[in-house]
Amino acid sequence: MPNASDILSAIQSAFPGAVTESRVESDRRLWLTVDAKKLVDITKFLRDKHGFDHYSGAAGVDRINDNLFEVTEILTSHGAHQVVVLMKVKTPRDNPSVPSLNGLYWNANWYEREAWEMFGINFEGHPGLYSLLLPDELVGAWPWRKDWKGYPDTTTGKRAVEKLATSGHTEYRFEPTIEELKAGTVHQRQKFPTFREREEMELGSDAEMIMHMGPQHAVVPGPFLLDLLLDGERVKKAFLDVGYIHKGIEKIMENRTYPQGLVYTDRMCYMASISNNEAYCGAVEKLLGVTPPERAQYIRVILAELSRIQSHLLGTGEFLTLLGSATYSPFMYMIIDREDVVSLMEAVTGARITHSFVRFGGVRNDLPDGFADQTRKVLKMVREKTTEYIDLLASDPIYQQRMEGVGVLTPGDARRLGVSGPPLRESDTPYDMRREDPILVYPDLDFNVITRTKGDSLARVEARMEEILESCHIVEQCLDQIPEGPIQEKLPKKVKPEPGEAYYRVEDPRGEMGFFVVSDGSDKPYRVKVRGPVYAYFQALPPLLEGVYVADVVAIAGSMDSCTSEVDR
Amino acid sequence: MTSEPLAVEYYVPLIMFLIMGAIVPIAALAAVKIISPLKPNRRKLSMYEGGLVPIRDARIQFNVQYYLFAIVFVIFDVEVLFLYPWVYIYASEVMQRVMVFGMNIAVFEMLMFVAVLLLGLLYAIKKEALRWV
Amino acid sequence: MDLSAIIEPVSSWIDQEPLIFALIIGLIGAAIISGVINVGAMAVVWMDRKVMGDVQRRFGPARVGSRWGLLQLGADAIKLFTKEDSIPIGADKQVYVWAPIVASITTMLVAAALPFGALNIGGKEYPLVVANMDISAFYVEAALSVMTVAIFMAGFSSNNKYSLLGAFRGMARMIAYEVPMGVCVIAVAVMAHSLNLVEIVNSQSLWYAFAQPLGFLIFTVALMTDLGRVPFDQSEAEEEIIAGYTTEYGGIRWGLLYFQEYINMLLGSILLVLLFLGGWNGPNIPLLPPISPMIWFALKLIIVLEFLIWTRASLVRFRIDQVTDLGWKWMLPLSIVNLAWAAAVGLYFA
Asked: Does the first or last residue of chain B, that is N or C, have fewer Cβ atoms within 10 Å of its Cβ?
């Protein structure tokens, strides 16, 4: 298996002079700065010759002091090797433009769109640079830029203007007032087509039915819009719009100190708050150059796995209500089981869902007395119950009929669409961050990566249940192996990392969760970029939904176990 | 069972039931008119479609495949209609006089009738007329 | 007291004026039965919530009206009656308003011909039925499915896409199962040599559930689709199409539609008991001879209702194309097989 240095020398020999800066952080991390003109060629070379078939995201950084924008493309591989290449291209701030990688990677689309709408960086060759997360009024304001002052001007204007549309609905607009325009605090901006206008462009005759699913609909785990173009009850085309609860967490974290930023990571997805904490803290620890003591690492692993158990239980339960109805009983049973697991976590962290527990270089609390016994008891129960659920679902012919062969992701498709976590693993790709990018004490633990070959909704749910069993196994090992010792590394009172960049990823209950943190030496992060797993699910959803029945939309979207809050972070 | 060919008395109470069935909801609606508040506005009266403004009319030309269900249904429902009077006569003395293949003529004929219809059903299934749209 | 002095002139008047007598009977019957089915449906709703709560390890209604939540439905009714009554813009107003009324009329018409049990007075059984017509099995089965017309009216008039899909689904589901259901009723009639429900009950020395198990199975499934119970509730699948045909209905209009569904469930269960489970037949209970048939009848009815509720709590929903496939490709041919079986038994062994 090649390591980071091998990849670097391969690039340097193939493209002499293209790499302007390089840093081999470890065997698995390679930081490059490349010439923008060579970006596509180098990426193509990496993809075709070195197995970099997974485009993991793009992060824009506004280097206002150097009058530059940086775009960092994150590339890695589905199992050929474990190197993550973070390839940086620089572009002038007045006319920012970098080549698009959408021609090479299908899933580069959304990441580049996000970088465009947040920074205004043009991606040459991108098929449709439209807004994704921002409301229509904010498009063109480039809010992630460092010189953005808020819109409309917070000092003068009214924040939102209520307007009654002709259809009887209320529209809220953030339009600049005349005074603002006169004072020059706000500029009239170029108009970009809205989601609705783009949709209308793609639609055919009036005889087709277009049905909204969401943003307020029983099937959606949070507000997002799924517009289904229907022929009878078959979906001809699906349009997806996200951003209804965009919170701007990335920007907020730039304006908070490092420890303050931690609480925001909880709120990105309350089901996976521990792993979000972990990813953020891990990235900052890399910047600080500290390693948590071993006991703290074990505690983190225990909580991460407990968090996975509770997330899978609730996720599967919710999914079953989508498939049956709210009256389908296993949902309630799973909620009741989950309560016990959540209580265990509460005993350690003091909170039930938003834990804010992990600290830079350690954890907040030690395990309470009697935790190990109680945990073993609960895990025994969870294991018994989960086995029972697996049997129940396997013996339900209606359930099998509904799920088998529905929403099939072939291994090729799953990799191309860039999904991660259970949907990818169930498509015969054993890609698990705990194996690929091992963190904490995972290398010392013995566990299996659950995979399936079929890649349909049935496999996804079944495997999720089996992951619960596997997590139980991991926690029990941790309880056996956990050493005594300190739980917190000594750190200065004020967290001020050296200038630099770090990328750290963990296996969220839903897949690959990565944090890209840039430090400029102050006590606040210069830039935080979150690469969440559900973002990738959502991007992959519309092609999966083409040609299925309305009822299957529920089965497919539900089996992905999504969390809108994390997409709209 | 009554000896009369058509016992009208049995059907007359239905009128009362029909009226009663209408009175209950109408009375409920009238009661609501009196006791519940009524402050309509356009927003309140607009349609619900995922919380957004609906695009396009809901009453569209539905896929024609759907109407095949109705056509097949009509055929088979008529078959069932034929079966109802048949129930009354199939075991009667008259029918026992003519026997075909060991069964009386009424049973035999119905068997033929149903068999032909089942063939039709088979044809409809093979032609995918009963595929959901 | 000398009863004959009263009975004599009354019976002679009945002979003279059968139509007027029928109208009077209808009026009294309608008033009583309307009360019975409404109270009965309230009991079913309560039972639905309570049993479901038990199955799902929660309490169900437990606050209003003692810890059994007996008055919960009353509280719900107050809420529904005081809610604002609105008709959406773009709805077909006449049809929209009439849909719950049609549903209510349907259930009343079904109830008119259904025997609600029997009383045993002096060794003779008197069925409690208003219109004891000679084709009542056929009539009830037909009238039950008129409910679908109400569903379609509600769905189509709302001018809402979810409602429209719900209406189409409801219609397709009904027609897929109407034929097997009718054929099953005929199979029962073939064995009983009658289409009168009272006579069908009386002829069941052996329950038809045992005499024709296939027919019982098909009829139960078809009945569940007719009633729109899980796993056949595609017309109001809330996770797919919000509330199906009732999406645009609110307040008392929704309450009426919802309540009619429960009345329909009660009536459908009664039909199942009458056709296949021997109705009120059962050994005489000592000390309570007059109401012993009623006890048997109620017992069977509660078991059927419990079954319907239990399935709702423990099964996932079929997809609509699977439902229609099941109906046309399995239920229909099998119901004909069952009919052949019934005809053979009825002809040669009965």
From this structure: N
Which class does domain A4-131 fall in? Answer: alpha beta
Strands (DSSP E) found in chain B: 99-100, 103-104
Residues of B in contact with A170 (CB under 8 A): 43
Q: Is B19 on the interface with C (CB under 8 A)?
A: yes
Average pLDDT of the segment spanning B80-103:
75
Chain A residues closer than 8 Å to C237 by CB? 325, 551
Nearest CB partner across the interface for B65, out of A167, A217, A232: A232
- Listed by start position, the domains of chain A span 4-131, 249-567
Are B51 and A170 within 8 A, CB to CB?
no
ipTM over 0.90: no
Instruction: Find where tokens 């519940």 sit.
Output: B36
Residue A387 has pLDDT above 90, yes or no: yes
- Are residues A505 and A201 in contact, defined by beta-carbon separation less than 8 angstroms? no
What local confidence, expressed as pLDDT, does residue A156 receive? 44
Is A233's CB within 8 Å of C165's CB? yes
Closest residue in chain A to residue C59, using alpha carbons only:
A332
Bridge partners for A190 per DSSP? none
Is 50 exceeded by the pLDDT of residue A350? yes
The answer to whether the CB of A156 falls within 8 A of the CB of A179 is yes
Å between C62 CA and nearest CA of chain A: 18
Q: Which chain A residues are Cβ-neighbours of C235 within 8 angstroms? A: none
Residue C245 DSSP class:
G
Average pLDDT over residues A55-76: 89
- Pick among A136, A163, A169 to test the B interface (most B CBs inside 10 A): A169
On whether any CB of chain C is under 8 Å from the CB of B29, the answer is yes
> Whole-prediction pTM value?
0.86
Considering only CA atoms, give the Rg of chain A.
24
Core vs surface per residue A198-225: b (16+ CB within 10 A) or e: ebeeebeeeeebbbbbbbbbbbbbbbbb
* Average pLDDT score over chain B: 78
Class of the CATH domain delimited by B8-126:
mainly alpha
Q: Which CATH number fits domain A249-567: 1.10.1650.10, 3.40.50.720, 1.10.645.10, 1.10.10.10?
A: 1.10.645.10
